[in-house]
Amino acid sequence: MIIYLDGEFVPKERAVVSVFDHGLLYGDGVFEGIRAYHNRVFKLREHLDRLYDSARTIALEVPLTKDEMQEIVLETMRRNNLREGYIRLVITRGVGDLGLDPRKCKKPTIFCIAASIQLYPDELYEKGLEVITVSTRRNIPSAVNPRVKSLNYLNNIFAKLEANLVGVPEAIMLNNENYVAEATGDNIFIVKNGVLITPPNYVGILEGITRNTVIDIARQRGITVEEKVFTLFDVYTADECFFTGTAAEVIPVVKVDGRPIADGKPGEMTWELIAAFRELTKVDGPLIFPEEAAGCYS
Ligand code: PMP
């Protein structure tokens, strides 16, 4: 496995970061999880935009342009001979001293890892997930804003620990006002009377690229989409429920806190959106090996 680290492509064994890196010491940094399908990096521009917005919010100046960063991602895939997989792109504040002060960190650490993945077995996409709501509340936006995809994931890890305790793969997190926010690594959607509903940003969520993609797909198909707050009551009484995320893609949720959603089977609209999402992954994003694109012979 070849990793991009600070300007070089190095074997995994040499891809090491200092113990004085503030990404490690304080979670001071930002990242993206990106997917590649069919020789293309899906929604790469959107991921780079979010990465740079996250960096700007934590006042971290990225010493590379988005075009340069895009090339790093594509080249990491090429060096690993991958046409699909999961990409982790990370920018930390860099090496500093043991104090908090970011001014001590002179240069961000940047690395990119590309690997093969499948988060859930195929069977779970057919059957749907059983999940619970956890007691850990999502970070309030006025403290660590969930819109910033920072290396500070302890809030989500607490929720994951609770899910692990009862043996379910994901957990729904509420915000501090008891509105439904998101899952530990996914956004949530419900369907009620033909309307697709998902929490708005201000509830305190990561604005998922998959979430936005599904909203676009749904609107293109004439489905009414509402970004509005809702509670667990609305989840329990929904006609359908699903999660979206780069790793999970679009995955049905069929039971929440022991209550089956509708008949306890993935719903029609969920299937429709899964199929449309999968179609889009065939055509969206820059090519990794352009010479292999259909109709391009050299
Ligand atoms: N919420 C959280 C907390 C996440 O970590 C993720 C995964 N990045 C998502 C939502 C889904 O976002 P995306 O669709 O951009 O992967």
From TrEMBL:
<dbReference type="InterPro" id="IPR043131">
    <property type="entry name" value="BCAT-like_N"/>
</dbReference>
<dbReference type="GO" id="GO:0052656">
    <property type="term" value="F:L-isoleucine-2-oxoglutarate transaminase activity"/>
</dbReference>
<keyword id="KW-0456">Lyase</keyword>
<dbReference type="InterPro" id="IPR036038">
    <property type="entry name" value="Aminotransferase-like"/>
</dbReference>
<comment type="similarity">
    <text>Belongs to the class-IV pyridoxal-phosphate-dependent aminotransferase family.</text>
</comment>
<comment type="pathway">
    <text>Amino-acid biosynthesis; L-isoleucine biosynthesis; L-isoleucine from 2-oxobutanoate: step 4/4.</text>
</comment>
<dbReference type="GO" id="GO:0016829">
    <property type="term" value="F:lyase activity"/>
</dbReference>
<dbReference type="GO" id="GO:0009099">
    <property type="term" value="P:L-valine biosynthetic process"/>
</dbReference>
<keyword id="KW-0663">Pyridoxal phosphate</keyword>
<dbReference type="GO" id="GO:0005829">
    <property type="term" value="C:cytosol"/>
</dbReference>
<comment type="pathway">
    <text>Amino-acid biosynthesis; L-leucine biosynthesis; L-leucine from 3-methyl-2-oxobutanoate: step 4/4.</text>
</comment>
<dbReference type="GO" id="GO:0009098">
    <property type="term" value="P:L-leucine biosynthetic process"/>
</dbReference>
<dbReference type="InterPro" id="IPR001544">
    <property type="entry name" value="Aminotrans_IV"/>
</dbReference>
<keyword id="KW-0100">Branched-chain amino acid biosynthesis</keyword>
<dbReference type="InterPro" id="IPR005785">
    <property type="entry name" value="B_amino_transI"/>
</dbReference>
<protein>
    <recommendedName>
        <fullName>Branched-chain-amino-acid aminotransferase</fullName>
        <ecNumber>2.6.1.42</ecNumber>
    </recommendedName>
</protein>
<keyword id="KW-0808">Transferase</keyword>
<dbReference type="InterPro" id="IPR043132">
    <property type="entry name" value="BCAT-like_C"/>
</dbReference>
<dbReference type="InterPro" id="IPR050571">
    <property type="entry name" value="Class-IV_PLP-Dep_Aminotrnsfr"/>
</dbReference>
<dbReference type="GO" id="GO:0009097">
    <property type="term" value="P:isoleucine biosynthetic process"/>
</dbReference>
<dbReference type="GO" id="GO:0052654">
    <property type="term" value="F:L-leucine-2-oxoglutarate transaminase activity"/>
</dbReference>
<keyword id="KW-0028">Amino-acid biosynthesis</keyword>
<comment type="function">
    <text>Acts on leucine, isoleucine and valine.</text>
</comment>
<dbReference type="InterPro" id="IPR018300">
    <property type="entry name" value="Aminotrans_IV_CS"/>
</dbReference>
<keyword id="KW-0032">Aminotransferase</keyword>
<dbReference type="Pfam" id="PF01063">
    <property type="entry name" value="Aminotran_4"/>
</dbReference>
<dbReference type="GO" id="GO:0052655">
    <property type="term" value="F:L-valine-2-oxoglutarate transaminase activity"/>
</dbReference>
